[in-house]
Amino acid sequence: MSAAVDAAREIAPGAGPATTRLIEAQMRAFPEHEAALRKRFALADADPIFCETLAGMIERIAGETLAAVCDDYRWLAGAVLEEELFFRREGRYRLTSFAEAEALVYADAAYMTRYMNGLLLSQLWWANHTAVLAWFRDRYLPANRPGARHLEVGPGHGLFLHLAASDARTSEATGWDVSPASLDQVRHTFAALGKAPPPLSLVNLFEPSPEQFDSICFSEVLEHLETPAKALARVHDLLAPGGRAFINAPVNSPAPDHITLFSTPEAIVELVSGAGLVVEELLLAPSTGASLERARKFALAISTVIIARRAD
Ligand SMILES: C[S@@+](CC[C@H](N)C(=O)[O-])C[C@H]1O[C@@H](n2cnc3c(N)ncnc32)[C@H](O)[C@@H]1O
């Protein structure tokens, strides 16, 4: 048996077969990540049933390219580390404009594909990402009204959109993204998971649209934008009266295309309320292994997730 297989079984002894296979593949591509994976799977909240479902989905999406996808995660971890070093030195994110992020990331198909592959694996390897996805499936979607029309802005790798489109309460799902490569990834995710893709459009959130939705997923996009207050006002206007939004943005989370730095979860909650949305529920998920107290003290990433409603 290879060292990667031995290590995978030790890293997550209670894990199911798909999770173990993914850890093995990741260890082959990125053996230096062993300590991080050990820390992640030692957590009491690493629910093995959800992790196994997620691992099974990721395995099917990656298919025969699993080794390359694991390599893309390794690349992403390196890119994020570089941004993290900049953030610690300068106290800000490196990019300051959407135009820069668009040119460097969204419009570069090869870069974007790597990025979204890395982000796909981060859904399992980063405890805060897993917690957010589980909350979306188990807490947000079940409270949608039957027949809900659902929009995701910035679906990226497509996992959230696939969960929403598969939910019995969703009558129609659709995705808008500024990156053609992201939309291709979403199509691939749906095909790999055996579901026809929903309508997907190359649309910037800020483009005017007369459409309205009962449910909007807006996850890990707010920090990519120069004018987050305007973005939330758009989300408000895109919701039908009584409609709900799942808004997820991280604080202190440098990445190659992050522009707006939120320093506290409260700053994000305030922006959401300021857009006229009623904040109904809040989840704070600190980065892997950190308590909320430690994350606040040392300016570590905290995924800040808000379930909000348009009241009028
Ligand atoms: C980090 S990914 C988020 C993927 C997924 N929603 C998640 O939470 O993991 C950000 C996505 O937002 C898209 N995006 C960035 N700015 C956007 C805008 N103004 N309008 C629509 N999509 C945008 C990017 O192209 C990318 O696919």
Structure description:
The structure is a single chain. The protein has helices at residues 3-11, 17-29, 34-42, 48-62, 66-90, 98-106, 109-125, 127-140, 159-166, 180-192, 228-238, 265-274, 292-297, and strands spanning 148-153, 170-177, 200-202, 213-219, 239-251, 277-286, 302-310. It has two domains: 3-125, no CATH class; 127-310, Vaccinia Virus protein VP39 (Rossmann fold). With 312 residues, the chain is α/β, with parallel strands linked by helices. The longest helix has 25 residues, at 66-90.
Mean pLDDT: 96
H-E order: HHHHHHHHEHEHEEHEHEHE
Largest sheet: 7 strands, mixed
Bound molecules: S-adenosylmethionine
Helix content: 40-55%
CATH superfamily of the largest domain: Vaccinia Virus protein VP39
Percent of residues in beta strands:
15-25%
Query: Order of strands in the sheet with the most strands?
Result: 3-2-1-4-5-7-6
The appropriate CATH architecture of the largest domain is: 3-Layer(aba) Sandwich
CATH fold-level label of the largest domain: Rossmann fold
- Going by helix content, strand content and strand pairing, the class is alpha/beta
Number of strands: 7
Radius of gyration from the CA trace? 18 Å
CATH C-level name of the largest domain:
Alpha Beta
Unreliable sequence segments: none
Please tell me what the overall shape is. Answer: globular
Continuous helix count? 13
Distance between the termini: 61 Å
